[in-house]
Amino acid sequence: PMRLLHTSDWHVGKAIRGRSRAQEHQAVLAEIAGIAEREAVDLVIVAGDLFDTSTPTAESERIVYRALLDLAAGGRPVIVVAGNHDSAPRLQAVAPLSEASGIRVASAISPADGGGAVELAVGGEVAQVALLPFPSQRYVVTADLLLSGDAADAHAAYADRVVRIVRTLTDRFRADTVNLVVAHLMVMGGAMGGGERGAHTVFDYWVPATAFPPAAQYVALGHLHRAQQLAGPAPLHYCGSPLQLDFGETANDPVVNVVDVRPGAPARVRPVALTAGRRLRTLRGALADVIARATDVGTVSDDHVRIVLDEPARAGLADEVRAQVPNAV
Questions:
Q1: I need a labelling partner for 298 at 20 to 30 A (CA). Which of 85, 106, 167, 318 fits?
Q2: β-strand partners of 281
Q3: Distance (Å, rounded) from C-alpha 43 to C-alpha 61?
């Protein structure tokens, strides 16, 4: 069978209360490249939101492009779709260099014969891959409907249009090929991880799980930060973020998905845990109790810690906490 690795929502450049996480991102992306090598994967899929902002710093770009090159080591193909945090023009600008390195970047929705669907021969199989970068409402819903229709009309038009796009891009799926979809979007029934951009996870942006055809053997989703499988006519998987990105994500356990798939058979999906990032933890209580727990190495070790004190505010309190708990953010 073909073996692929599914990762998404890196959000390189994301800080935690002003503290850089560049070193954590470097470490976890190197860990993912190591998993790809150790598992001898044939194909790597990055399902959007490589960056946290559409205007990333040079440091963030260096981290992302180094990671993509590491994932493509040895001639392994890498497929990337743009997420809502990514800048499609910036990704498109480096596409010639990326493609020369075996990294295919879908920065905007394209017709099937214009890059929206690709055929790859890897792992002894032929794969048909439909590519769906984040479909913004501005792109999908016409301006007159947004201006004159009510919210329900707008949502129906968005969902219907995305369903038609998926149907067009998956039209080449065959019984004798490995049929894959890579999409960055919000699928109905998904549980948010806590750190997603709210405007792009409200109901206006949801599409039904039935958008994906039963012929798809694995749908690699990005956008939600918690790893999860959704019910639908095809295997729908969010792999989640490789780091806990904010304090709404403390219940998330970062993973990548390693997937074995052959034509005509269900995909076998195996989550592989990621351990390079620091966890996020919230401690609540009185000052003395919180400091006692925070300085217990067995409790928080190297975690980023948010501290909520159940006592009246006073001058110098925050400085006192930071002096006692250096990893408090």
A1: 318
A2: 305
A3: 22
For residue 223, report the phi and psi dihedrals to the nearest 5 degrees. 130, -45
More reliable by pLDDT, 178 or 205: 178
CB 58 within 8 A of CB 83: no
Burial 186-210 (b: 16+ CB within 10 A, else e): bbeebeebbbbeeebbeebbbbebe
153, 198, 277 from 242: Cα distances, Å: 36, 20, 8
Among residues 224, 219, 217, 266, the alpha carbon closest in space to that of 245 is found at: 224
For position 316, what pLDDT does the model report?
A: 85
Is residue 20's pLDDT more than 60?
A: yes
Q: What is the pTM of this model?
A: 0.90
Under 8 Å between Cβ of 305 and 281:
yes
Q: Give dist(CA 85, CA 106) in Å, integer.
A: 14
Q: Which residues contact 54 (CB under 8 A, 6 or more apart)?
A: 85, 86, 87, 90
- Residue that the structure tokens 């990514």 belong to: 86
Residue 2's Cα: distance from chain center in Å?
22
Amino acid identity at 322: R
| Distance, CA of 290 to CA of 309 (rounded, Å) | 8
Enter the tokens of residue 16: 């935690």
Cα 238 from Cα 254, distance rounded (Å): 11
